[in-house]
């Protein structure tokens, strides 16, 4: 299950000075990728996607808290049970999705410290015996070679309870996984350990990890993609989440790391305990702003936590039956329709707090507006013909008129 530290900060909120300074422009022109939004940009988690696949355009499923950790697959030394993961991959393929499989946690019989305290049972956070790790990675990679399965080294390695080893030990695991995959054809994509970013100490761990080398080679050279969990503090917003991304990029620049970035867990309001859902309009706005801002910042995938998640987050995509879409779940479909196949240019905030993000769509230029603080009017862009506010039908634009902008994002075409 999801545990408090998985929210990117444990149960302790950051001190006021721990969040990076806000900026008025959220875009990263030096980030990797061409910026065109593919279906895999719209990722999500689901605890049981075989029983009920998300009722939405999920292009990538992150298999975490879904019953397919290492210790759930390798049930005895050298004995592997792939039934659940096979079904998950089959189901994903049927829905034109890939699967991002997180490779931890350590079975107790392979743990260097079998009594290590862990969220997933004794020894799960322990560094594994290297021979066992290589055999596990090789077994998984060979089984799914050529299928839409992406492999990730570990989950939240900078959170005690998920990983009790050092940065160097995690770097050694990363290189070992890289070396194993070099012998697999076709070679699967390898994603770095997911690292949380909310707290100063977590970002310090991240800094030390990306300073690490193995046999003289920087650890980032062994992965194809970098993974960060960009949960802001419990009162945070999609905009403050992007400030964490900016802080991460400052660290990466220090070590000249230039790789694609995936935001592998995101939601809002996490405190480590149950929280009340945010107001409906805020939930819808959170979903749309998250995907628009990540696209503007050249994040190549965003994984919502989670499609069926309840109670510990404030933005819920499904009702308690875990199937029926909430307005926020419908907003996921809307932002997919707004962005797929497009490029988001930059996002700017004006003196009144109104954000505007330019979108280069196959159907022509678009702009997404919102103001999380108040309701304002903005001049209709020249040539605008239509507006759509999240949750409402499209409306024609009066030439030379104005557009009302508030918390719910508005697409102007």
Please indicate the percent range of residues in DSSP E strands (runs of 2 or more). 15-25%
**Main sheet summary:** 9 strands, parallel
Order of neighbouring strands in the sheet with most strands: 8-7-6-3-2-14-13-12-9
Give the CATH H-level superfamily of the largest domain: Glycosidases
How many distinct domains? Answer: 2
CATH class of the largest domain equals Alpha Beta
Shape: globular
Helices and strands, in N-to-C order?
EEEHEEHEHEHEEHEEEHEHEHEEEEEEEE
Helix content: 10-25%
Q: What would the average pLDDT be, to the nearest integer?
A: 92
Number of strands: 22
Overall SS class? alpha/beta
State the separation between the terminal residues, measured CA to CA.
42 Å
Question: What is the overall number of helices?
Answer: 8
Low-confidence stretches: 1-32
CATH architecture of the largest domain: Alpha-Beta Barrel
Care to describe what's here?
This protein has two domains: 4-342, Alpha-Beta Barrel (TIM Barrel), CATH 3.20.20; 355-412. Residues 1-32 have low confidence and may be disordered. 25% of the residues lie in helices and 20% in strands. The protein is built from eight helices and 22 strands. It has helices at residues 70-73, 83-94, 130-143, 167-181, 200-210, 238-254, 280-296, 327-339, and strands at residues 25-26, 42-45, 60-63, 74-76, 79-80, 98-102, 149-152, 190-191, 195-196, 213-214, 217-218, 226-229, 261-266, 301-304, 343-349, 355-361, 364-370, 376-379, 386-389, 395-396, 402-405, 410-412. A nine-stranded parallel sheet has the order 8-7-6-3-2-14-13-12-9.
């Amino acid at each position: 299950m999801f545990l408090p530290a998985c929210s990117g900060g444990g149960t302790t909120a950051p001190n006021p000075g721990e969040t990076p300074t806000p900026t008025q422009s959220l875009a990263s022109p030096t980030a990797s990728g061409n910026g065109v939004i593919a279906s895999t940009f719209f990722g999500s988690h689901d605890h049981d996607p075989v029983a009920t696949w998300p009722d939405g355009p999920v292009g990538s499923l992150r298999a975490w808290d879904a019953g397919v950790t290492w210790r759930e697959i390798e049930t005895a030394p050298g004995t592997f049970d792939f039934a659940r993961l096979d079904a998950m991959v089959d189901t994903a393929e049927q829905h034109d999705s890939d699967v991002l499989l997180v490779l931890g946690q350590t079975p107790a019989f392979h743990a260097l410290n079998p009594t290590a305290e862990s969220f997933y049972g004794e020894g799960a956070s322990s560094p594994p015996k290297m021979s066992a790790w290589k055999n596990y990675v090789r077994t998984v990679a060979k089984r799914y070679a050529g299928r839409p399965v992406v492999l990730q080294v570990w989950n939240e390695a900078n959170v005690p309870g998920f990983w009790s080893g050092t940065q160097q030990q995690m770097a050694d695991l990363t290189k070992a996984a890289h070396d194993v995959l070099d012998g697999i054809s076709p070679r699967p994509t390898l994603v770095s350990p997911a690292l949380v970013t909310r707290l100063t100490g977590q970002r310090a761990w991240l800094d030390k990890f990306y300073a690490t080398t193995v046999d003289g080679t920087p650890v980032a050279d062994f992965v194809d993609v970098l993974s960060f969990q960009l949960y802001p503090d419990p009162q945070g917003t999609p905009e403050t989440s992007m400030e964490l991304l900016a802080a991460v990029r400052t660290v990466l620049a220090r070590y000249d790391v230039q790789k694609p970035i995936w935001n592998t867990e995101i939601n809002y309001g996490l405190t480590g305990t149950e929280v009340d859902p945010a107001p409906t309009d805020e939930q819808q706005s959170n979903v749309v702003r998250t995907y628009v801002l990540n696209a503007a910042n050249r994040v190549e995938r965003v994984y919502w936590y989670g499609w069926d998640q309840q109670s510990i987050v404030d933005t819920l995509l499904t009702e308690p039956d875990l199937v029926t879409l909430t307005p926020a779940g419908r907003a996921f479909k809307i932002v997919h329709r707004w962005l797929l196949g497009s490029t988001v240019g930059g996002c700017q905030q004006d003196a009144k707090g109104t954000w505007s993000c330019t979108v280069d769509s196959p159907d022509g230029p678009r702009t997404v507006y919102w103001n999380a603080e108040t309701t304002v009017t903005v001049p209709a862009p020249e040539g605008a013909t239509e507006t759509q506010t999240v949750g409402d039908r499209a409306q024609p634009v009066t030439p030379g008129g104005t557009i009302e902008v508030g918390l719910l994002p508005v697409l102007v075409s």
